[in-house]
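Bench notes, afternoon.
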Amino acid sequence: MLRPWEMQLWLKNSSGKTLHSKLLNTLTADIKANRLPPGTMLPGSRSLAEQLGVNRKTVQQVYEELEAQGWLITRPRSGTFVSKTLPEQGLSPSDRQLVNSTDRTRSTSELVEILYRDALCSHNAIAATNDGTPDSRLIPYQLLARTYRRVCIDLSRNSRLGYGDPKGSAELRKSIAKMLSVDRFMNCSAEQVCIVRGSQMGIYIASRILDPGKGAIVMEDLCYLPAQAAFESNGFKVLKCRLDEQGLDIEHLRALLAEHSVAAIYVTPHHQYPTTICLPMDRRLALLELSKAHKFAVLEDDYDHEFHYGTNPVPPLASLPKSENVVHIGSMSKVFAPGLRLGYIAADTRFIERAAQEIILIDRQGNTVTEQVLSTLMESGEVRRHIRKTRKEYEARRNFAAEEFIRVFGDKVSFTLPTGGMAIWVDISRLTRGRKLESLPGKDSTLSTVYTGSQVAPTHLRFGFGALSKAEIAQSIELLAVALA
């Protein structure tokens, strides 16, 4: 049956900071105003996306959210319709006022909305959200299951499942300190370690401790957006420092320090996120000299130190001379799987005490069982063994991904083979030629526009090979070739 008219929607004057929120608010308002009465058939997600010039996935997510709230209903093989029983029907005027009230919550930034939306949909596809994540299929689940069982029995028998130290279990902090001292040249004790639920929590806690009244936070021009969102949410102005072919531009950092009061700089020196560049030793030493001279903290996110191929890794900033101002943040999520939620902060004892005070307010303590399991596996050598095994696998996947890019694209793309990590930074400028690309397949290929936040034509993409098998890598690169054609 043909529709007599094509439904038109206007988003430009709609409230909301993102296309998702604008479309959600527009449809809800039109339903409430009876412009879209109960039973109205809505356009298909593809046709509405084309009409509005948005990604089809955005329309699908809005439809799903409105259906979950009761505004829409989907009928198999028929389409999406405005529900005949709306959520607000039957409510008194005073109750409707309560439902419609927007005064109860504080609005957040557009960046946080985008990150939250990505997090909600990330579990729907294995490969679609990969930009350098580990492959949870490689996890030694039988070993983990046996260790969990033994640990649970031991903790229960010894009445150790109650409340504990907010800094984390003493056993795991000792194991982490030993690893940092032996493997990363850091002079570190258990009192200088605090356990957190992944590096993102460590970044957030660190930004809570620093005083926004004492200056801005400097980040690399292309950077890890969840960290930027954390800093901004805690009141910091974020300044961007240029990158070049060797990473952080120290001369530009000097210029920023001359013009601004800076509380801290956030860096990813082992493999810069997203470009994968390893910061050379001379720049590391220069950065530490500046931190001492200008009295700012250095937040070192060492998110994938374990995965380096062919050569020994450059020592972290926290292991070098004049590193007293360094806050070293790491994660065990890359070693096993993000779902284990274990990270750590290593810093001076006063900073660790402040971190524990912040944790008391939001989490009380971590997961005692998981922390004890990881400590047991570290002390038995199983963690080191697993790292050695997966490092070989990820190196093979890196090499295969590089070969596939050359096979599929030839000299139309270029990249420098990363010395470690789980992603390749690929120059696609010869293919894009200034075009805006809306149809890249998920986030196997994360465009540079995602990192800068500016609406410019993409020139690079970050291709994550870690969570993909060789067959999935080949398929993803071939799909990418279709999108870039």
